[in-house]
Amino acid sequence: MNRQAQAVIMLLFGGAILKASLSELYLRYVKEGLRPFLIGAGVLLVAAAVLTLWYDLRGRTAGPDRPAGPGGPDEDTTPGGHDEHGGHHHEPRVGWLLLLPVLGLLLVAPPALGSDAAGQAGTVLTAPGADSDYPTLPAGDPVDLGLLDYASRAVFDGGRSLTGRTLRLTGFVTPGPDGQPMLARMVMSCCAADGRPIKVALSGDVPAAVPADTWIQVVGGWTARTARDPVNQAEVPYLEVRSWQEVTPPKQQYE
Known about the structure:
Pfam families: DUF1980_C. By secondary structure, the protein is of the alpha/beta class. It is elongated, with a radius of gyration of 27 Å. It is built from 5 helices and 6 strands.
C-alpha cells in the first residue's frame, strides 16, 4: 500500500465519519453529546488525506528536477517503490482491513443494540446510586419515565415515589427467562461498546405474540413483585401493565 492508497483510505474513513455524524446514524454508536467531536475528527481526517495527496502528487511532479542521491530520482524511497538493489518495498497488507469499517459506515446501516444484546448481558441495575432520595414525580398522569429511572425507584426506593401513579414507559420487547416478554432498553455510558440493558418485567395486560425488538409503549403502575436476572442475578422490577401499543423507535434509542 503506497502513500496515495493510504491517503485515499483516510479520506474515505473521514468522509464516512462525517456522513454518520451529520445524520442521525451516529446515535447508534455514541452518545448524542459526542457529535461535535466526531465532526471534528472527520474534518481532520479529510484535511490530512487531502494534504497527503497534494504533497505526494507535487513531489512526484517535481521528481525529475531533484538532484540525484537519497530522495532524488536515482533512488525511490516512497512506500511501495524500489530500493537500491531493485527490490520492492511492501507495506503491511493488513492496512487494507481499514476498508472494512469504511465500507460498513458507507454502505451498511447496522441497527442499534437490541434484544440479542439484552439477552446476553445482565441488567445494569446492580447497585443504588449515591443519591438515594428520589424527587417527587411531576403532576399529571400518566407520567413518562425512563426504564432506568423506574427500575431504580422501584428497587432502591421501594416504589414509594411510584405508589398510586400511572406510569408510561417506552422500550423494546425482549424475551424473559420464563419466555414472557420483558421491556428493555440499552444504557450507554459513552459508546455502543459499553452498552448494557436495563430490564423491566411485565405483568397484567402483557403484550403477547409481539416479536422481539418491537418498540412498544406501556401504561401501568408499580407493583412490588420482582424477579432475578439469570445473567447476573440482579433484581428486576415488574410493571403492572394496563395498556400498551406499538410505537416507532425513537431517534435516541439508548438511555
